[in-house]
Design goal:
38% of the residues lie in helices and 6% in strands. It has 296 residues and is mainly alpha-helical. The chain folds into 2 domains: 58 residues, Carbohydrate-binding module superfamily 5/12 (Seminal Fluid Protein  PDC-109 (Domain B), Ribbon), CATH 2.10.10; 208 residues, Lysozyme (Orthogonal Bundle), CATH 1.10.530.10. The strands form 2 sheets. A 3-stranded antiparallel sheet has the order 2-3-5, with no helix packed on it. The protein has a two-stranded antiparallel sheet with strand order 1-4. Keywords: Disulfide bond, Hydrolase, Plant defense, Signal. This is Glycoside hydrolase family 19 protein. GO terms for molecular function: hydrolase activity. It comes from Streptomyces roseoviridis.
Length: 296
């Protein structure tokens, strides 16, 4: 009724040359995001948490049940300025610590989130190139391959110790100064062979040829070796895994760059499927599509 009276008044005032400002509907700005959900926290009924750009309300006691995945959480709507994109993480990485923990619930404590984010400065183009979707797709692709290589970030070193003496190419001019059996697989992409330790160390400014054990002692060094391979090495493929993701070649090409000689073109479809399945899960956690060309 009040609105109708104001409208009539506006019409009258228009005739006599007066102006009346009617109240306008305000755009519904989304509320601020409450504290981010933490997989290790206990929430009781009535407590709230934010996750993936939305606020959530706990109906009853819960722990480790991700908002949106269980009926215990009630969706309170978008937060943080009206968008569905969550605010940037403190580290600047497109994967939050809560999402990282969700991806690797059984990880070895050696593989810390802090170690990963500390390593990012070595390759500033990683997960920062292209659209927000591409950035998250690259992060998901890297972490999916890492998950496969390490059994979910469980293994820091190669488990088959019988292989250890076979990773020394003594024909290299620098040889194997750390010992015949020192260059076994370590880290998130299981760096192996003396020539790879030499190349990675040179690129990162770390003397890994003489002290390859740093990759299993220091989380940030371990993550840097994984990022070194991802960003600079074609492996059996025709491009780096980084270029595969930012240039639209697709997740399948990252598999080819990492282990394509053994897995692609029908070599081991079960291994390929393992990587693809994890990538699909991780892109879902990050809220982005997988893109095309998933297989190699």
């Amino acid at each position: 009724m009040l609105r109708r009276l104001l409208t009539v008044l506006a019409a009258i005032c228009t005739v006599v040359g007066l102006a009346v400002l009617l109240p306008t509907a305000q755009a519904g700005a989304a509320p601020a995001c409450v504290a981010a959900w933490n997989s290790s926290s206990v929430y009781t009924g009535g407590m709230t948490a934010s996750y993936n750009g939305r606020n959530w309300y706990a109906k009853w006691w819960t722990q480790n049940e991700r908002p949106g995945s269980a009926d215990v959480w009630r969706d309170e709507g978008a937060c943080g300025g009206g968008g569905t994109t969550p605010p940037p993480t403190p580290s600047g990485f497109v994967v939050s610590e809560a999402q990282f923990n969700q991806m690797f619930p059984s990880r070895n404590p050696f593989y810390t989130y802090a170690g990963l984010t500390a390593a990012l400065s070595a390759y500033p183009g990683f997960a920062t190139t292209g659209s927000d979707t591409v950035k998250k797709q690259e992060a998901a692709a890297f972490l999916a391959n890492v998950h496969h290589e390490t059994g979910g970030l469980v293994h820091v070193v190669e488990q088959n110790t019988a292989n250890y003496p076979h990773y020394c190419d003594a024909t290299q001019p620098y040889g194997c100064p750390a010992g015949q059996a020192a260059y076994y697989g370590r880290g998130p992409i299981q760096l192996s062979w003396n020539f790879n330790y030499k190349a990675a160390g040179d690129a990162l400014g770390i003397n890994l040829l003489n002290d390859p054990y740093r990759v299993e002692r220091e989380p940030a060094v371990a993550w840097k070796t994984g990022l070194w391979y991802w960003n600079t090495q074609n492996g059996p493929g025709t491009m780096t895994a980084h270029n595969a993701m930012v240039n639209g070649a697709g997740f399948g090409e990252t598999i080819r760059s990492i282990n394509g000689a053994l897995e692609c073109n029908g070599g081991n479809p079960a291994q390929v499927q393992s990587r693809v399945t994890k990538y699909q899960q991780f892109t879902q956690i990050l809220g982005v599509p997988t893109g095309s060309n998933l297989y190699c």
